[in-house]
Every structure is written in C-alpha cells, then in structure tokens.
TrEMBL record:
Key word Oxidoreductase present: yes
Taxonomy of the source species: Eukaryota, Viridiplantae, Streptophyta, Embryophyta, Tracheophyta
Pfam families linked: FAD_binding_3 (PF01494)
Keywords: Monooxygenase, Oxidoreductase
Protein family (similarity comment): Belongs to the 3-hydroxybenzoate 6-hydroxylase family.
Protein name: Monooxygenase 1-like
InterPro entries for the chain: FAD-bd (IPR002938), FAD/NAD-bd_sf (IPR036188), MOase (IPR044560)
FAD-binding domain mapped to chain residues: 8-70
Organism: Olea europaea subsp. europaea
GO molecular function, one term: FAD binding
C-alpha cells in the first residue's frame, strides 16, 4: 500500500503510544490521522525508558537523537 491509498487509519490519542504508532505507519507508507482531545501536546517531564523501549525507538529511527538528551541512572 502506498501513501496515495484512500484508506486511513484513525489513532485516538496523541500520547506516547499514538504518536510513535503514526510515525511507524508513515514509515511503512500507511496514512493515519491522530485524534487528540487536548488542544496541545503535553510534556509531562522525564520518562524512564527500558531496553525494549530503546529497541522500539531504534526501529523508529529516533533513538540516536533522543540518546543525546537522555541520561543513564546508575543501578
Ligand atoms: C506519574 C507517571 C509516571 C510514569 N512514568 C513512566 C516512565 O518513567 N516510563 C514509562 O515507560 N512509563 C511511565 N508511565 C506510564 C506511561 O505514562 C504510560 O504507559 C503511557 O503514557 C501510556 O501511553 P498512551 O499513549 O497509551 O496514553 P497517554 O500517554 O495517556 O496518551 C493518551 C492520549 O489520548 C488522549 N485522549 C484520551 N481520550 C481521548 C479521546 N476520547 N479522544 C481523543 N484523545 C483522547 C489524551 O489526551 C492523551 O494525549 C508513567 C505514568 C505516570 C502516571
């Protein structure tokens, strides 16, 4: 399916799941639309990301940029 497809995928909520999902679909050439009830995207502060999360961010192609802003909490 290419970007000219008439099909649209509706994602309800532009949160931490909805936004990466839209990006992942875009990378696969699938159109989607995000419906977000808030007028602005919220920044709720720092978030802990574990290994699986980083793998997902790597696949989305955004991990390297985020690693520059992240810091590691010592065990
Ligand atoms: C205090 C706190 C700290 C946390 N810390 C971490 C952490 O360090 N690491 C971690 O991995 N997880 C953490 N979590 C959990 C993490 O925030 C959630 O797992 C994650 O936000 C879920 O993502 P989501 O996109 O499903 O929901 P959300 O991020 O809540 O996004 C949902 C979005 O949908 C919108 N929405 C809701 N209903 C509708 C509707 N009817 N129509 C349109 N839009 C709608 C909302 O406005 C919101 O923008 C934390 C949670 C809390 C509360």
């Amino acid at each position: 399916m290419d970007m000219d497809s008439a099909e649209e995928i509706v994602i309800v909520g532009g949160g931490i799941c909805g936004l990466p999902l839209a990006l992942a679909l875009h990378r696969k050439g699938l159109r989607s639309i995000i419906l977000e009830k808030s007028e602005t995207l919220r920044d709720t502060g720092p978030i802990g990301i574990r290994a699986n999360g980083w793998r997902a961010l790597d696949q989305l192609g955004v991990a390297s940029e985020l690693r520059h802003k992240a810091f590691t909490i010592p065990r």
